[in-house]
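hey so i finally got around to running the thing on that chain from the lab meeting. sorry it took forever, my laptop kept dying and i had to restart like 3 times. anyway pasting the input first so we r on the same page abt which one it is
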Amino acid sequence: MPSFMTRLQKSLDNLGKGEKSMERGQLFVLEGTDGSGKGTQFKLLLTRLRRLRCLVETLSFPQYGTKSAGLIEEYLNGKYGADPTDVSPYVASLFYALDRFDAATKIRTWLTERKIVLLDRYVDSNAGHQGGKIQDLAKRKNFLHWLYRTEYHILGVPKPDIVFILHVPASIGQRLVAQKSERGYLGGATHDIHEADLQHLKDAEQSYLWLARTYPKDHCVIECVEDGRLLSPAQIHEKIWVVLEQYLRYEAISRFNARNHGPWR
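ok and heres what got predicted. didnt touch it at all, straight out
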């Protein structure tokens, strides 16, 4: 299979031939297994983009503390079952989908203003965590088709330009989660029902990796562990930046040509 960077260059070449309108900004998403350092990478990317004077807007999902995240908080606190599998992946996905619907208008507005939108978790969190509940791959693919249709078409949630999946083995990730402080939505606890269940984390890990193999043009896996060693935040950031920078360069070229020469050919 061609490398991700080869596939990326081909995709950007196709964009230059007019396969996608550049009348909107860019939407980048950080996904990944629990304990993979999404929050840290989110901050590093935001700092670097603003240092380059990019117009950036951000959101983190779920939107804890808001009405739209109420069912999610109840679910993660175990109200509907102490085991994640007590709740159907379809039902649980709706909790999260409606939270994103609540933010969709805001995201569309930012994209219309041609801003960069950086999101910490998004639609593919359902593909990972809820898809991991489905072991039969044919049934998981059916679930994924339903998920994307529900969010992108029925609810009108904007589709990302690229999704970065930070990969840390579940056993390591759970140990890193244990280092987190208390979180408000858990009422003082440190682990929600996903994080406390190692098997769930392993299933989600495999589901994320399967997702990237199934839709390689839309996902880039960032390996955060090499030779059994967790890479530093700076090293992980550079892996992400090498890819994200290609999108920024294409956007800059596209805008220049639109102003000066018409469509890029």
